[in-house]
Write a structure and sequence with these properties.
single chain; 169 residues; alpha+beta; seven-stranded mixed sheet; 4 helices; globular
Length: 169
């Protein structure tokens, strides 16, 4: 089996990141985006996240991007600066191979090193695989928002999960 490495995303990864994420926009409810992103929008997004100190990582196997994890602001108000929203997205054919764990382990370490205090995940329901992954990494359920997103003719809820990153996190 070819090994998988995790590294910081670069601008050269934008097309691959978009190809992976856009599949979830088009073919599932787990992204509440309703239109695929353009490569330019993804490029601007990567530049913004990187500039603002939020890690964006990729898992790469034999030169191919097989997944990504990223972070971003929880909310726009200054008092939330220590809180960060986290996400892991794998190419559909790469689920169940341990890449999500590898990406989350790397992302959480990068967030601790960057000095963030709390990580928050927002998971579209149902999504037992994502919930299990987050629990594995110490996230705990802190609430469910019922029927907050409308996509493909149906309403979906989200689960909020949270974990500490600071001392003892």
């Amino acid at each position: 089996m070819t090994s998988v490495g995790v590294r910081a995303a670069t601008e050269a990864d934008v097309g691959a990141l978009n190809a992976i994420y856009n599949e979830y926009i088009v073919d599932s409810h787990v992204s509440f985006d309703t239109e695929p992103w353009t490569d330019q929008k993804r490029l601007d997004w990567v530049r913004s996240r990187t500039r603002d100190g939020y890690p964006v990582l990729v898992a790469e196997r034999a030169g191919e991007i097989v997944g990504t994890s990223w972070s971003g602001p929880w909310r726009d108000k200054a008092a939330y600066r220590g809180s960060v929203e986290t996400t892991v997205v794998l190419a559909p054919g790469e689920l169940g191979k341990g890449y999500g764990s590898l990406l989350y382990e790397s992302l959480l370490e990068a967030l601790r090193e960057a000095g963030f205090h709390t990580a928050i995940a927002v998971i579209a329901l149902p999504n037992e695989g994502s919930i299990a992954l987050h629990r594995k990494f110490g996230y705990e359920e802190v609430g469910v928002l019922e029927e907050v997103g409308f996509k493909d003719g149906a309403y979906y809820g989200t689960m909020l999960m949270q974990r500490a990153l600071g001392a003892g996190g």
